[in-house]
Amino acid sequence: MKKKNIIISIIVGVLLVMFVGLAYIGNYFFNYALVRQEGIITEANIDPNAPQSVETYAEVVNKEKSKEDVSKWLEEVKTEETTILSEDGLNLWGKLYFQEEKTDKWVIIAHGYTSSHEDIQPIALNFYNKGYNVLTPDMRAHGNSEGKYIGMGWLDRIDMLRWIDYIVSLDSNSQVVLYGESMGGATVMMTSGEDLPSNVKAIIEDCGYTSVQEMFEAELYNRFGLPPFPILNAAEIVTDIRAKYNFEEASALEQVKKSTTPMLFTHGGNDTYVPTEMVYRLYEAANCEKDILVIDGADHGAAPDVDPETYYEKVFSFLNKYVN
User: Fold this and answer.
1) Rounded to two decimals, what is the model's pTM?
2) Which of 42, 96, 246, 251 has the fewest CB within 10 Å, making it most exposed?
């Protein structure tokens, strides 16, 4: 009997140690990946384990020209800052860029992970030059918006519905395009599976991922050479408790299957951060009117910079079919 009690005590002790260890791992991953990062994201404090790309000369030149064009544009364009309240009570911030003459053409542009509205201003300028009013929100837990936990597109899809309603409240005849890059791309794809107003005419996603689960699996392997089990399993439990969502339900792949909104899928052919193969599965899964563009030689988020002429020609020729 005494020996049996000792064995039971050892087993309980081992299980307790395992439980504590998994809880620590889950919280560590959650804090590392999903808790708001304070301060400005710069080259000096980017995660050294993140995949680094080598920019081509053309890409560098195009980026520098975009910065100059944006700087000049911001001196001239009429802008307005605004806020809305999220479903869970957060103040979400956005910036509006208005055309000089009235138009019903609108685009909402969603930025990427640990980014902000400023980083997608070159895209905003391209839409503005095509006659669109532009809204660039800071996603929850980013920039000027409130929030402690990053939504990875899943929580943000509900926020996007609020932003759409906001635009419709400004202009009941609005023709709204949703555009997103990286996590923003996942956001607009996840939004596509919701019940959208008829004002939403088309969606453009760039380098978005299939699901949060697969995104983190790829990250664990590419950055650290680690398998998903048990790290992601532990992290998902923590995320479910603290942020109120789980990785598997946060699926752009499942959402685009329900979409009825025309969608253009774009990606860089050399993307290893969000593997290029994901865009083909997303495209195949979508049941809406759709098209696809993969820019050869482009890394993550670089498609508009590597070949801007091809990229934007495709984007606006696609949109012209649905936006008057």
Assistant:
1) 0.91
2) 42
